[in-house]
Amino acid sequence: MIGSLRGQLTVKQAPVIVVECHGVGYDVETPLSTFFALPPAGADVFLYTHLLVREDAQILYGFASEEERALFRNVLKVRGVGARIGLAILSAMSVADFRRCIDHEDTTSLARIPGIGKKTAERLVVEMRDRLDNLPGAKLAQVSVAAGAKAEAADALIALGYKPSEVNRLLTKLDIDGKSAEDIIRLALRQAVT
Fold first, then answer.
1. pLDDT tens digits for 29-52?
2. Of residues 127, 28, 14, the one with CA closest to residue 81
3. pTM reported for the whole predicted model
4. What is the number of structural domains in the chain?
5. Rounded-to-integer distance, Cα 174 and Cα 170, Å
């Protein structure tokens, strides 16, 4: 398995690049997020990689961060999703945006990505929900809420057993300006019961 590449970027033609390492040029397919972050041709580059072996080809995929590679690898495990869709997801949105889509069950945004229909978007939400916790940086992005009383309330609701996606839904429906964490928790619990 090829886990990473460090070498000179010799060809840069989206989505394929060539990285030369000690006289060997590796064709590497990248998502647009990685491609746009690359230095100009001739510069040194470092990429995290994933080697996909099929009957008819061996394809090397390159990513700017471990988080992107981890998301790509986890997306490949979803039934009916292949490498093309994995690249399309990372080309269309950041890892944090993908997490938000899964947490908020936003199948509409996922279905806008080329190659993903409504059923595939629903399958991604269902199957990726539990896998997001295993991605690098997942603990930092579990709940997308502002700091302060809202964050305290979100942490308390999660401790009570609510899922981060449920907490986000509850808190976005509430008018919480100027309220304490305790007041926000009371309002959220009332909303959850009704």
1. 999 999 999 999 999 999 999 999
2. 127
3. 0.69
4. 3
5. 7
CATH number at residue 28: 2.40.50.140
78-to-85, 106, 169, 182 alpha-carbon distances in Å:
11, 17, 25, 39
Rounded to whole angstroms, the Cα distance separating 61 from 26 reads: 10
Would strands 44-53 and 58-63 be described as parallel, antiparallel, or unpaired?
A: antiparallel
Phi, psi of 142 (to 5 degrees): -65, -40
For residue 142, the model assigns a pLDDT of 41
Q: How far apart are CA 31 and CA 122, in angstroms?
A: 22
Q: How many CA atoms lie within 13 A of 57 on its CB side?
A: 7
Alpha-carbon gap, residue 103 to 34, rounded angstroms? 24
129 & 82 share domain: yes
How far the first Cα of the chain sits from its last, in Å, is: 52
- Residues 134, 71 within the same domain: yes
Q: Cα separation of 100 and 149, whole Å?
A: 21
Residues 57 and 82 in one domain: no
The SS3 call for residue 148 is coil
Distance CA 177, CA 33 (A): 36
For residue 39, give Cα distances in angstroms to 10, 35, 64, 156, 179.
11, 9, 11, 44, 47
